[in-house]
Amino acid sequence: MSRYNEQFLKQSPLAVLNVLRDLHRDRIPLRVSWGTNQFISHILDISSQALIIDYGSQEYENRAVVRAENITLSAETQGAKIEFTVPKVSSGQFLDLPAFTMPVPPELWFVQRREYFRIAAPLHPFYYCKAKLPDKSFVRFRLCDLSLGGMGALMDEAPPPALKSGMMFTQMELDMGEWGKFYFDAQLISLSERKIVDSKNETISTPRLSFRFLNVNPAIERTLQRIIFSLEREARERANKVR
């Protein structure tokens, strides 16, 4: 936690509650992590007495987290990364469904997000992404642009009805060819269309998806930064050749 500047630490009980209430209101995904384990959750309820979050999707993780200590919870919004630690969680119920209860943290980190530089992906080779839908089917799309905060992607066919804005994906695969494969938790921010006019003066519409990465760890962020710099350099070299 000390990797952040102290200016980002919120210690006022009211300030901490306000941040957590915003996460609850906007249904921002929470990453719950301890040791090498983690799962994605949401805040179900927040008061000055307790923070209540949803169970994870895997039963063994739900059993393990109750035995763990010093659990880190983190979230990413459009404006900031939020992170805090609680000593323990306990298993209980909320509205007759299983839930985890924990004390409200006395402090949390609210790290302002810098504006991320976004680079267009090359037209050749294509880089492909793959995500699993709730019905266990896979959807495939190609990378359109990339930043440390997220990516744009294009589909070669109409998106399936199950694909909706706001959906969360766990471990979505991004195949960056020579740089290897990366796996992200991500949220689909928007579904739109990219329209271009071809050489025959006909308008071609392509489904476009915008994703926000959730809780990218520092090691992957550094690798992504190197890839973005490299893509930028290649684009500059191509532009210079054209002149």
Give a short overview.
With 243 residues, this protein is α+β, with helices and mostly antiparallel strands. The chain has helices spanning 13-25, 59-67, 218-242, and strands spanning 9-10, 30-34, 37-41, 43-46, 51-54, 71-76, 80-86, 90-94, 97-102, 108-112, 119-120, 128-132, 138-146, 150-154, 168-175, 181-197, 203-214.
Explained architecture:
This protein is α+β, with helices and mostly antiparallel strands and 243 residues long. The protein is 19% helix and 44% strand. The protein contains 3 helices and 17 strands. It has helices at residues 13-25, 59-67, 218-242, and strands spanning 9-10, 30-34, 37-41, 43-46, 51-54, 71-76, 80-86, 90-94, 97-102, 108-112, 119-120, 128-132, 138-146, 150-154, 168-175, 181-197, 203-214. The strands form 3 sheets. It has a 6-stranded antiparallel β-sheet with strand order 1-10-7-6-2-3. The protein has a 6-stranded antiparallel barrel with strand order 12-13-14-17-16-15. It has a 4-stranded antiparallel β-sheet with strand order 4-5-9-8. The longest helix is centred in the last third of the chain and has 25 residues, at 218-242. The termini are far apart. The mean pLDDT is 87.
Shape descriptor reads: globular
- Poorly predicted regions are none
Please, how many helices? 3
In this structure, how is the largest beta sheet organized?
6 strands, antiparallel
Provide mean pLDDT, rounded: 87
**Secondary-structure element order, N to C:** EHEEEEHEEEEEEEEEEEEH
Radius of gyration: 20 Å
Q: In percent terms, what proportion of residues is strand?
A: 35-45%
Structure classification: alpha+beta
Spatial order of the strands forming the largest sheet: 1-10-7-6-2-3
Secondary structure: number of strands: 17
What is the rounded distance between the termini? 48 Å
Q: What is the helix fraction of residues, given as a range?
A: 10-25%
